[in-house]
Amino acid sequence: MKISMNRICKSFDKAEVIKSLDLEIQDNDFTTLLGPSGCGKTTILRMIAGLEKPDSGEIWFDDSCVFSDKNRINIPPEKRNIGFVFQDFALWPHLSVFENVAFGLRAKKDTVNIKERVNEALESVQLSEYKDRYPSQLSGGQQQRVGFARAIVTKPDCILFDEPLSALDAILREDMRLEMKGLIEKLNTTAVFVTHDQMEAMSMSDWIIVMNKGRIEQQGKPENIYQRPKTHFIANFIGKSNWVESDSMFRPETAALKKKDGYREFPAVVSGIDFLGEKYNLYLNVHGKRWTVESSSRYSVGAEVSVYVNEHDIVTI
Ligand SMILES: Nc1ncnc2c1ncn2[C@@H]1O[C@H](COP(=O)(O)OP(=O)(O)OP(=O)(O)O)[C@@H](O)[C@H]1O
Ligand SMILES: [Mg+2]
Predict the structure, then answer these.
(1) Residue identifier of the C-alpha nearest atom 18 of ligand 1
(2) Domain boundary among 168, 202, 227
(3) Closest ligand 1 atom number to CA of residue 45
(4) What's the domain count of the chain?
(5) 12 CB within 6 A, ligand 1
């Protein structure tokens, strides 16, 4: 399902949080809204789901309008056929895993073959054996799988994820990243994923929409946003940037420490070193500017080096 938001505005207590936003989510794509805390990501998801009412504008699901202030349309959440996976899992503590997943179907009185459908959803997240347990008897990762099963059991046209992995520890987070991505691919559905984690956004998404202060800064494929940032905000928020001038930068991994023909040479002094296992990060002082480059060997602090950069890798903002 394609989602379009047209000229959406939303304020809370006179503070404008979303500013005349135009946004399109393509059918069957995995789209991520990426942006710093407070930029309005959750508010957008809640408006798509019908949990928050925009002040003005329109929201369309394919060819049907689900919200319009002008035409006084506001389809309630239960009629929008959207799945929602929350950051804090939001499971009912007094209901078993099975009943948590069945809850949405029972609420809609959609109980035909309910046992089979719930079991199928639990199977897809490999939790069949846990169906009689209560949320407090599950690990964080298992609880989030229940959250996922609950979102897919109604066969929604779109699933919204609000930072679903942020309550998990780093290793589990990476495993769950792959698992969720795989499950969503299998479902063949539209997914909108919210995160403020750049790595998560880049590794999971077909399309990234970067937001800042209630506005879209840039949207595109992950590679495009990383390699060709259009604003200072994007260049600094996603990945590391080495600024050559106030309006031109390159990414650390594109630079070399050995002479390369045709590359620009920048003399630098090593000011710090981080050993990261597979490589070193060198922090450099380049005429008062602080750069980072990657290296396969250790350098001493104070060492004089040359950094070689291809003009093609320098992006003008
Ligand atoms: N119900 C509310 N009442 C008042 N202000 C709100 C309400 N909901 C959100 N806000 C404000 O709107 C702004 C955007 O909030 P939102 O939750 O959408 O941000 P976010 O991008 O999801 O941030 P985070 O990454 O921290 O979750 C914030 O300044 C927040 O304080
Ligand atoms: Mg949020």
Answers:
(1) 40
(2) 227
(3) 18
(4) 2
(5) yes
What three-state secondary structure class fits 248? strand
Handedness of CA 32, 192, 124, 103 (dihedral sign): positive
pTM: 0.91
Mean pLDDT of 223-248: 95
The b/e string for 137-154 (b: 16+ C-beta within 10 A; e otherwise) is ebeebbbbbbbbbbbbbb
Handedness of CA 177, 232, 271, 313 (dihedral sign): positive
* pLDDT value of residue 26: 96
Domain end, chosen from 178, 198, 227, is at 227
* Same-domain check for residues 24 and 112: yes
Query: Could you tell me the CA-to-CA distances from 78 to 53, 84, 191, 270 in Å, in that order?
Result: 14, 11, 18, 59
CB 76 within 8 A of CB 187: no
Percent of the chain with pLDDT over 90: 88
Q: Does residue 41 have its Cβ closer than 6 Å to ligand 1?
A: yes
Mean pLDDT, the chain, rounded, equals 95
Asked whether residue 308 is domain-assigned, the answer is yes
**Phi, psi (degrees; rounded to nearest 5) at 132:** -95, 0
Question: What is the atom index within ligand 1 of the atom nearest the CA of 87?
Answer: 27
Q: Is the pLDDT at 9 greater than 90, yes or no?
A: yes
Domain that holds residue 272: 242-316
Nearest CA to ligand 1 atom 4: 12
Q: Which atom of ligand 1 is nearest to the CA of 211?
A: 21
Q: The tokens 């520890």 sit on which residue?
A: 169
